[in-house]
Amino acid sequence: MQSLGGVDVALPPLRIVFQEFVELTKTKRIRKSDRQRRLWFLPRERAVGNFETALPRCAQAGIDKITREDALAFRAWWARRVENAETRAETANKDFGHLSQIITEWAEVKGHHDFENPFARLRFDLSVDAVATRPPFSRDWVTNKLLAPGAFEGLNEEARDAFFVLINTGLRPSEVLSCPRDDFHIDSSIPFIRVAPHGRELKQRHTARDIPLLGVSLEAAKRIVSRGGITRYFDKANGWSSIVNKYLENNGLKETSSHTVYSLRHYVEDALLQEGVDDRVRADILGHKYKRPNYGSGGGLKMRWEALAKIAV
User: Fold this and answer.
1) Count of helix runs (H) and strand runs (E) in the chain
2) Are 235 and 178 a contacting pair, CB within 8 Å?
């Protein structure tokens, strides 16, 4: 029981707290698309479900009955899974973070300012994962394997062309697959693709940008436009990634077991660095936050085209 103004108040169980939290914070997601709202909701719901699975005796208890010892028992449940190589510490940390956020924000809005969050400060040291970040494809692999004649003939044309758009742009898959047809400006003096919100929340404000299209990426964009734009995988980057990653694996197109479609983004970043492209221009192309004072346009579309022309295939 929690005392509130001298009156004992029974607090709801975690599942109900989560439902109230979703409703209480919905204004924070106004700018997200329906898909982005689902992607926000699912991992938080999964964290609640994992806690209920690990400690079923706490499922119906009010959150004031969830102790620090219960939270540590949940951490131990995750630790066993990490030690058995069933999952990664990073995945467990996401659960801890989501549960801590749910409790903290719910308690703040509901006026339970003295409520002690049992899920705070549970995170594992990520060094236990010993998992490398996605490596970049090498230029030799891109030109001789990924662009070999017939390499992608077994993949449907929209999935294939979206992949080819990534090769010379460094765009995130979600940035290509959320672009309406009119954002493929293939008839401009410098053809480009525009990354804009269009009813969805961008990863960061600075990710809105125009990226030149060259070489195989321009040819793929032309084919996408001729078919009426992205349709089958529109706003479905996760599904697209699963299909293409499986295709890469089944057809010997992964340079190592750690390579994924996202390795194309790292390939572009590395290639630009090797060509000595200015860090401001690289940040503008990749949609990274520029850490120094941001003056002017960074050279705009022309300078980005000149940089990408150095690496385009």
Assistant:
1) 12, 5
2) yes
Q: Distance (Å, rounded) from C-alpha 171 to C-alpha 123?
A: 31
Do residues 304 and 284 make contact, with C-beta atoms less than 8 angstroms apart?
Answer: yes
- For residue 203, pLDDT over 90 is answered with no
> Is 173:166 a contact under the CB 8 Å cutoff?
yes
- Cα separation, 292 vs 280, in Å, equals 9
Residue type, 214: L
Range with the poorest average pLDDT among 119-133, 150-164, 287-301? 287-301
CA distance linking residue 199 with residue 197, whole number of Å: 6
On the CB side of 1, CA atoms within 13 Å amount to: 7
Quote the tokens at residue 94. 């996401």
* Residues 117 and 104 sit within 8 Å (Cβ to Cβ): yes
Which residues contact residue 147 at a Cβ distance below 8 angstroms, ignoring those fewer than 6 apart? 167, 216, 313
Rounded to an integer, what distance in angstroms lies between the CA atom of residue 277 and that of residue 271? 9
* Tokens standing for residue 249: 């694996």
What is the per-residue pLDDT across 68-126, written as a single tens digit (0 to 9) for each? 999 999 999 998 877 766 678 888 999 999 999 999 999 999 998 888 899 999 999 87
Contact by Cβ (8 Å): 109, 226: no
The H-assigned helical ranges of the chain are 14-24, 34-54, 68-83, 89-110, 139-141, 157-167, 173-177, 215-226, 237-250, 263-274, 279-286, 300-309
Exposed/middle/buried for 214, CB within 10 Å: 0-12, 13-18, 19+? Answer: buried
Q: What is the pTM of this model?
A: 0.63
Of the candidates 134, 106, 140, 120, the one whose C-alpha atom is nearest the C-alpha of residue 17 is 106
Residues constituting the chain: 313
**Distance of alpha carbon 313 from alpha carbon 145, whole angstroms:** 13
* Pick from 108, 96, 144: nearest CA to 17: 108
Q: Which residue(s) pair with 49 in the sheet? A: none
Type of residue found at 281:
V
